[in-house]
Design brief:
Blueprint lengths: L4 E3 L3 H11 L5 H19 L5 E7 L4 E7 L3 E7 L2 H11 L4 E9 L6 E7 L8 E5 L2 E2 L3 H12 L5 E8 L1 H10 L4 E7 L2 E2 L5 E2 L5 H6 L3
Parallel strand pairs: 1-10, 4-5, 4-7, 7-9, 8-9, 9-10
Antiparallel strand pairs: 2-3, 5-6, 11-12
Amino acid sequence: MSSRTRLIDHPLIQHKLTHMRRKETPPADFRRLLREIAMLMAYEVTREQPLRTVEIATPLTSMQAPVLAGRLCFVSILRAGNGLLDGMLDVVPDAGVGHIGIYRDPQTLAAVEYYCKLPQDIATREVYLLDPMLATGHSAVAAIARLKAAGVGLIRFVCLLAAPEGLDAVYANHPDVTVFTAAVDAHLDDHGYIVPGLGDAGDRLFGTK
């Protein structure tokens, strides 16, 4: 596994992920579990964020206290990325938010962009790109390229599950990007789904299949 792959193997995350994988888990529970996992992952993906000090007044005295030095932005790859976005914002509510709409052509598996809305100052922010599944990697590669075209310098990709094929695609096209994931599964099937995986994250989030 590449040194640019950060595996987040906290027991609570792994426990909740197992429940998400179960085919009988209903959409309401699937959404709740993904939001809870996103909150837990937020602690890990921001661990290396630098701090600066500011002067504040406590009820007793003044002091120099730490605050985040960087300006963060969470960018969701629609639609499934919103399942991670909500939990991340619960932990970092002041972060900027962007959305990139990409769907996978069912025949070619190529990424097709249909929507993009990013903060005007995104080039000055550190970006966490969110999508629960890193399968073929086509959507991730296209979204990262879109962010770089907008002037973003530091991009981290955050997913729930990754396939080796997807990781290879990201690193081949964007070797400067670090991928954070809760699990690296075995492989992709003939339809581009992660095995053993958990099915289509978007359909399971919103009960559309």
